[in-house]
Specification:
The complex is a heterodimer of chains A (414) and B (233). Chain A is an alpha+beta fold. Helices cover 52% and strands 19% of the residues of chain A. Chain B has a single domain, classed as 3-Layer(aba) Sandwich (Rossmann fold), CATH 3.40.50. The chains are: A alpha+beta (414), B alpha/beta (233). Chains A and B meet through α1, α10 and α14 of A and α2 and α3 of B. The structure holds adenosine-5'-triphosphate and magnesium ion.
């Protein structure tokens, strides 16, 4: 007969009360798991949206550029990569690298024949690489850019819907782009609107314009690229790949930086902090509720068995043994409740995902999403630890109570 | 110390105060119980029988007087020492049996051995033996709620004796039993006393039981008023 076994058996005495306690603990556990799964889904959705929305996992850029700007969209070609083709070949030879795409950022004015004009943020790239990297611009109207570099005079652009609206342009219309080249000269490029897109980010949609790398190079009178955006097969390898790239590119002149996507998306950090805050808040509510609910029932269970504890003490059970018995009963409740909660959470996650509930767009996004709740293994393990801590706390009062029992009074207790 | 009496009480005083009212439950009790003795403690309700038993059992402390158990002054023992003493040297039988409801008869009897650190195999063997001695060899797996009152008290007696204590203290052990069962339980105690050499101090109201005891101590208002040995008159 072990103390732990005796504690477990004692849970079978008042089955109804034990069932209620287990239900409270399991519900709290499942609530935390669902929240963790939803938060993880939101993080992951946000991360993947940002990575595949144009950030890539890693950016290879001149150290001086990385030092002076944070926003990727502000990388200038003047301090860009002249030898990007050689770099691209070396980087793409690394395992786990899906593609290294040259990107050229060109900001300037867009104007139309009817005299309308608006500032634009042009992002130029290689459509073949971008497809491979999963850079997904949602084409709303018209057609995508051709893979092959356009010939001179046949440049085509994709306009974000907001920008197209302010310019009054539709697919097939002509427009002129004005931008300052690295030497400070104002250049112009005539282009046809190939299609309308959305970036998925509202603010960006009022300025965003997409063009072929060759078109942008023509506009800026340069053969370089602002940076190389590197996409990996797996997001969780970002830091490892970054170290590999740094090793590969060490000694390059001018010095190069490898910037992870998180450093280029300050917004992500804020959202993450917000979600973490929400999770911590909910977690403390669950924590407090379960502590309150279970400490009360544990105390009741002790009060009902005062005479039994007196008997145990009379027979020579030490104070620490009877206190341990009460503590172990609480720990069993916590463990069993958390395991039940983990099972319940797993079932609920499967059910919720099968229901494919549509959610309003997450912050900053345009399109509604299908609710998905992820399995977060750390959360499953974490809730077990958490509930053990919760029940340890909840057992504090009953333990003090039982440790202070005076044997004679306990024996004559009715 | 082996020749020291199991209990030697001198001038035991126990006082309870409830608000302003002070109750003198024991007013100077002298009592010596030798090894293997059977003593019935009798007296009217409120005379201090239970109080005396609690003091002898080191469950409570006297307000005055001295108590030696097996030659050791209880006053010199701390909480831990008293717990160990009860665990290894004493057995208790209660009016309400006080078995653990979630344990089988055998497991209840194993409890003192488990506390004493006896290994599983020996523990089971000795618990079965003790249950057989009280005539419950066929009930080892029963839980208390599957046993009659008399059977429960016999399990409790087996529990009190299984670790071969110096003394068993029993407070109204037959109080919840019908008179026939009560006599049987008392006879069992006497028989076990002969076979085990364990001393018994039994508090009781029951004249039939008092008459069967070889030594009878009468209490009244917290004092010993008679101490008789030999067959009752
Ligand atoms: N915890 C207590 N607080 C106050 N008074 C108490 C307490 N315990 C016992 N007493 C009083 O001490 C006296 C002796 O009580 P005790 O229980 O020892 O009597 P008893 O002989 O065992 O009686 P009974 O035959 O009814 O069991 C009684 O007057 C009782 O009311
Ligand atoms: Mg009494």
């Amino acid at each position: 007969m072990r103390l732990a076994l005796l504690a477990l058996r004692n849970l079978t005495r008042n089955r109804r009360r034990t069932a209620i306690s287990l239900a409270v603990i399991a519900t709290g556990t499942a609530a935390l798991l669902l929240t963790a799964g939803f938060v993880a889904f939101s993080f992951e959705g946000l991360s993947e949206a940002m990575i595949h929305g144009g950030l890539g996992h890693l950016e290879v850029v001149r150290q001086s550029t990385a030092d002076s700007h944070t926003a990727t969209l502000e990388r200038s070609v003047a301090e860009g990569l002249d030898d990007w083709e050689a770099l691209q070949a070396r980087i793409e030879a690394l395992p786990g690298v899906r593609a290294a795409a040259p990107t050229l950022y060109a900001a300037g004015m867009a104007s139309t024949a009817s005299g309308k004009s608006a500032a634009f943020l042009g992002v130029a790239g290689d459509p073949v690489r971008e497809r491979r990297m999963g850079f997904t611009l949602k084409l709303r109207e018209g057609e995508a850019l051709a893979d092959a570099p356009p010939r001179e005079g046949e440049d085509r652009v994709l306009l974000a819907k907001g920008l197209a609206e302010s310019l009054g342009l539709r697919p097939g219309d002509r427009m002129t782009l004005l931008a300052v080249d690295p030497d400070g000269m104002l250049n112009a490029l005539d282009a046809v609107v190939a299609g309308l897109v959305t970036t998925g980010v509202q603010e960006l949609d009022t300025r965003y314009l997409k063009l072929h790398l060759a078109s942008a190079q023509r506009l800026l009178g340069s053969s370089g690229a602002s940076n190389l955006l590197v996409t990996l097969d797996r997001t969780d390898r970002t830091e490892v790949a970054r170290a590999e790239l740094l090793r590969l590119l060490a000694g390059h002149q001018p010095p190069l930086a490898v910037v992870p996507w998180t450093a280029r998306a300050p917004f992500y950090g804020q959202v993450r902090a917000l979600y973490k805050g929400i999770f911590a808040f909910l977690g403390s509510i669950v924590f407090a509720l379960v502590v309150l609910a279970t400490s009360n029932t544990l105390l009741m269970a002790v009060m009902e068995r005062v005479r039994e504890f007196g008997t145990l003490r009379a027979l020579g059970t030490s104070i620490s043994q009877v206190a341990g018995l009460v503590g172990l009963e609480a720990l069993w409740l916590g463990l069993l409740g958390a395991l039940l909660g983990d099972a319940l959470g797993a079932v609920l996650i499967v059910v919720l995902n099968a229901l494919a509930i549509t959610m309003p767009p997450p912050p900053g996004a345009v399109d509604p999403i299908d609710l998905q709740v992820l399995f977060v293994p750390e959360a499953f393990a974490g809730t077990i630890v958490l509930m053990l801590v919760v029940l340890t706390l909840a057992s504090a009062a009953p333990i003090v109570r039982v440790a202070r029992l005076r044997i004679v009074e306990a024996l004559t207790h009715t | 110390m082996e020749n020291a009496p199991v209990f030697r009480a001198r001038g035991l005083v126990k006082r309870y105060s409830m608000g302003d009212a002070v109750v003198d439950a024991l007013r100077g009790v002298d009592l010596e119980v030798g090894a293997g003795e059977v003593v019935a403690v009798a007296g009217p309700s409120g005379s201090g029988k239970s109080t005396l038993l609690h003091l002898l059992g080191t469950l409570d402390e006297p307000d005055a007087g001295s108590l030696e158990v097996a030659g050791t002054a209880v006053a010199a023992m701390d909480e831990r020492a008293r717990t160990l003493f009860r665990r290894l040297r004493l057995g208790f039988v209660f009016q309400t049996f006080n078995l653990l409801p979630v344990l089988s008869a055998e497991e209840n009897v194993e409890l003192p051995l488990w506390l004493a650190g006896v290994g599983g195999r020996e523990r089971r063997a000795r618990a079965r033996e003790a249950l057989a001695e009280v005539g419950l060899g066929g009930r080892v797996g029963h839980r208390p709620d599957q046993l009659s009152g008399g059977e429960r008290q016999r399990v409790a007696i087996a529990r009190a004796l299984v670790h071969r204590p110096l003394a068993v203290l029993a407070d109204e052990p037959t109080g919840n039993l019908d008179s026939e069962t009560a006599v049987a339980v008392m006879d069992l105690l006497t028989a076990l006393n002969r076979s085990s050499g364990t001393a018994f101090v039994v508090c009781t109201h029951d004249p039939a039981l008092i008459a069967r005891a070889p030594r009878r101590v009468f209490l009244r208002d917290g004092r010993v008023v008679a101490d008789e040995r030999g067959a009752a008159a």
